[in-house]
Amino acid sequence: MSRDYDLEPLWIPFTSNRDFKMAPRLLVAAQDMHYIAEDGRKILDGTSGLWCINAGHCRPHIVAAIRQQAAELDFGPIFQMGHPGPFRLAARLRELLPGDLEYSFFTNSGSEAADTALKIALAYHQARGEPQRQWLIGRKRAYHGTNFGGTSVGGIAINSKAYAGNLLLKVDHLPDTHDLEHNAFTRGQPQWGAQLADELETRIIAQHGTQNIAAVIVEPMAGSTGVLVPPVGYLERLRAICDKHGILLIFDEVITGFGRLGVPFACQKFGVQPDMVCLAKGLTNGAVPMGAVVTSKKIYDAIVNAAPEHGIELFHGYTYSGHPLACAAALASLDLFEKEGLFERAAELAPYFEDVVHSLRGLPHVIDVRNIGLVAGIELEPRPGATVTRAFEIFQRCFEKGVLIRVTGDIIALSPPLIINKNQINELVGVLADALRDQA
Ligand code: PLP
Known about the structure:
Distance between the termini: 28 Å
CATH architecture of the largest domain: 3-Layer(aba) Sandwich
CATH class of the largest domain: Alpha Beta
Strand content: 15-25%
Helix content: 25-40%
CATH topology of the largest domain: Aspartate Aminotransferase, domain 2
Bound molecules: pyridoxal-5'-phosphate
Mean pLDDT: 97
Number of domains: 2
CATH superfamily of the largest domain: Type I PLP-dependent aspartate aminotransferase-like (Major domain)
C-alpha cells in the first residue's frame, strides 16, 4: 500500500505501536454505519468508533453545523468572556438530564470530565466547611480516563503501573461487580451482587472515617473494562449509603450517556439520581472533542452562589472549554437524536439485539454473553499463558471480514451506532460467530 505519509513519527495511544506499524488498520472515510478502510473495503462499525458515534458517521446535519460555526466564530475565550454556544448547550443538557442536574462545566474529553468532577467534589466539601472530606472512592475494573485523577480512581492495575507511587493518595476502591459464577449469560441486569455495594460502609467508611469521604465515582455500567452491567439494586444501595454519610455520588456516563441503554442517560434507566454526571463521546457524536460535568443545583449553589461576590469561585477550566465547534456539533447531535428518536430506537431494537448476541452462547470458548440496551459483552476463556491473544485474533479476523468490533482483554464489546438495523445486527453478530467458530 503506497501512502503519502510516514507511520513512524506518530506515538499511537493504547496500542502496540510496533505491531501496528508493521500491519496497520487504517480508516480513510466513513458514512452512517460504515467506515471505508484504506484498501477501499467497507467496514461495518460494530463499536460506534470508540463508543461515541451514536447517530452514525458524518451525518450531514452535524457536518453542516460544524462548517457553519467554523466560518462564523472559530474560537472565543471562555474565561471572563462568552459566546452563545456553551450557554445554549448547557440549557439543552439541563432539559435532558433528570432532577436537579442543572449546571454544565465543559471540558474537552471524558478524562478531563472525570478529573473536573473529582475537583468539584473536593471544592464542594471545602465550600461547605468540611475540608477534611478528601477521600475519593472508585471501583475495581473502572475506567475514568487517563488523567491523574481518573487514573487514580480507575481500577485497572495496568493503567497505573508506570505511574505507581505518584498517583492521588487518598483513594480507595470498591470491589467490582463482575461474577461469572453467579451471573454468567445474564440478559440485562444480573440478580446477584447488590450486596457488593455494602463494602462502602462496612470497610471503606469504617476504615477512613465517615467524615473524611468526599465522593464515590462509578460508571453506572462499566463499558470499556468489558461491559459490566450493575446488579439489580446495587446502584440504589450505593446511593443510600452515600446519602446516609453525606458523600457525593458521581456517575461517569461518558459511555452510557446519549442513548446507549435506550434512554438518554443510565441514571434514568436505573432510576438512581447522582449528584454529578460526566459526559463526553456521544455528546458531540464524536465529531469534535468535548466533555462535560453536569452538577446538581446544590453543588453549584455551594461553590458559586455561596462564595463571596466579585471573585472567581472555582479555579479550574480549559482554554477550549465550550469551544464553538464542539458546541455546534453537540447541539446538532442533540437535534438529530431527538428528530430521529434514536434513544427510543435503541430501546426498541434492544430485545432483538439481545436475542441475536445470546445466540453466540455455545460457540467455542465463549464463557459469557451479557447485554443491556445496545451494548453487549462476549467473554472468552483466556488461552493458558497467553491472555488477550484469543480476543485480539477475533478482532483481527472480523476486521478482515469487514466488521469492526472492540476487545478489552479477552472480552469482546459490541456497541453499534443507534441507527443500526436488524440486518446489520445479523451481519455484525454473524461475522463474529464465524470468527469464533474458526478459532485456531
Ligand atoms: N470515562 C469513561 C467511562 C470512559 O469510558 C472513557 C473513555 O472510554 C473516559 C472516561 C475517558 O474519555 P476520553 O478518552 O475522552 O478522555
